[in-house]
Design goal:
The chain has 467 residues and is mainly alpha-helical. 52% of the residues lie in helices and 6% in strands. The protein is built from 19 helices and 6 strands.
Length: 467
């Protein structure tokens, strides 16, 4: 009679079958501990209890398919929450505007923000002192039907479905804003559409026209946020989209400003922009929408054109060959030194300052250095300007028109791809620009730096005459 204990050192009789069973059980336990699962088991790599997504759905799913649905969702939400907390994206006193296009990325971003807000609301209701308020959430959809015509019935149906999605995410209640992109050009809808079409038609380059529309979309989001009192703008930009931007920006000669566009926080505009899905792949977001039955609505499903389209296809092929390519591209670009505005500005709220100090201690972050000089930005795309982008002082002094001065405060990429070459066409293009872009060109720190340089030269010249 065998004792059945694998560690027994007595001379008792052991059956060979018992020894084989114990050895087999030990090997299985060791393999499960090391993360090796038998193909017949098809268990989740993390919990080792539920079936993996690949086994449950019968599809590959890549690395994310090795987890069960619950662990996969928890892992994805963990990435989102870590990005929010470690970069102080949302504070209790904030009012966050979620940019919603209807796609999977913005849909997941909206869902995760709602979960954080709902949990904050439950904690607020359960607390006695109720010292920390619950941050507000609004949703904005930019209507681009003036550029990409959509049948009226189809567009109305899509907007109604978006409004239903937002209304179901309660409590707390969320405002839904539909902002026509032409309102950035004029308050009158008809005049705004005409000016917008003329402005885009004035750009001959296909890539430049698409980039200009992207900048106008961001201006529209800023306008919605300012008009409705929002303090943060949350975008659903994921790893896949940022990887494409890394390559396109490099091709367009925007290497100096590349680091500014790929960080978690971008506070160069009046309303800071945050990217909490920066570490999530598009494949993961699409899979989560499928698993959780999150409805997506593609209203303006227009493929990219020009350089943007070529790079998008190229990155997609790279990702099919190796699922880690997009992460490698973003991780490599992430080694670039970020700018001063790529961190959240300090707040006057004592609760926010205390939370910021705890965050710096927890994540070993250095406090911001407010003594650094302000950056100079392109009037069109807001990219930080390098000294090589500055025209010479004599040419700036000899500029007789506001159009020439405007061209002087644009980056090399915008001058090459967006601005017309002919003087008359450039003047017409300048007359159609939205007022925020004109104001940015007039009030930018670059102009102030030029003025200071000219004054310094004049002072030196006067001093030399006095000597």
């Amino acid at each position: 009679m065998a004792c059945g204990t694998a560690t027994c050192q007595s001379g008792c009789y052991k059956d060979n079958n018992d020894e084989e069973d114990v050895q087999s059980l030990t090997e299985k336990r060791n393999e499960a501990t090391n993360g090796v699962i038998h193909s017949g088991d098809n268990l989740c790599l993390k919990c080792k209890t539920n079936k993996s997504i690949a086994a449950a759905t019968g599809s590959g799913g890549g690395d994310c398919g090795k987890l069960c649905a619950d662990c996969f969702r928890s892992n994805l939400f963990g990435k989102f929450k870590l990005a929010v907390t470690s970069n102080a994206m949302i504070s209790p006193s904030d009012s966050v505007l979620v940019a919603f296009s209807g796609g999977s990325s913005s849909r997941v971003a909206l869902e995760f923000v709602h979960e954080m807000q709902h949990k904050a609301q439950k904690n607020f209701d359960a607390s006695r002192d109720r010292s920390l308020p619950v941050f507000g959430v609004g949703v904005a959809f930019i209507d681009e039907s003036a550029v990409y015509p959509v049948p009226f019935e189809e567009f109305d149906k899509a907007v109604d479905e978006m409004r239903l999605i937002v209304s179901n995410l309660t409590p707390p209640r969320k405002e839904f804003h539909v902002a026509p992109i032409e309102t950035i050009c004029s308050s009158d809808s008809s005049d705004g559409k005409n000016r917008l079409k003329e402005l885009l038609n004035a750009v001959s380059d296909v890539t430049g026209r698409e980039d200009l529309l992207l900048h106008l979309r961001m201006l529209s989001l800023q306008k919605v946020a300012l008009d409705n009192g929002y303090t943060k703008i949350l975008l659903g930009s994921c790893t896949s989209k940022i990887a494409c931007h890394v390559i396109t920006a490099t091709i367009k000669g925007q290497g100096f400003s590349l680091a500014a566009d790929i960080q978690y926080v971008d506070a160069r505009c009046e309303i800071p922009v945050v990217l909490p899905l920066r570490d999530c792949l598009a494949q993961e977001l699409n899979l989560l929408c499928s698993l959780d039955s999150l409805k997506t609505i593609e209203v303006f499903n227009v493929p990219h054109a020009g350089i943007n389209g070529l790079v998008s296809s190229f990155v997609k092929l790279l990702q099919e060959e190796n699922p880690s390519r997009e992460c490698t591209i973003v991780r490599t670009a992430g080694k670039l030194t970020p700018f001063q505005f790529n961190r959240m500005p300090e707040s006057d709220d004592s609760n926010v300052r205390l939370a910021s100090q705890r965050r710096q201690k927890k994540f070993n972050l250095k406090p911001s250095n407010e003594s650094l000089p302000p950056e100079s930005f392109c009037a069109i795309c807001s990219s930080p300007l390098n000294k090589s982008d500055f025209p010479s002082l004599p040419s700036f002094k000899n500029s007789q028109t506001s159009t020439e001065n405007f061209a002087a405060v644009c980056c090399a990429s915008c001058r090459f791809q967006i601005l017309p070459n002919e003087p008359l066409s450039l003047e017409h293009f300048h007359s159609l620009l939205p007022q925020p872009i004109i104001d940015r060109a007039k009030n930018g720190s670059w102009c102030n730096q030029l003025r200071d340089s000219i004054c310094s030269l004049v002072c030196l010249f006067v001093d030399s005459l006095a000597i």
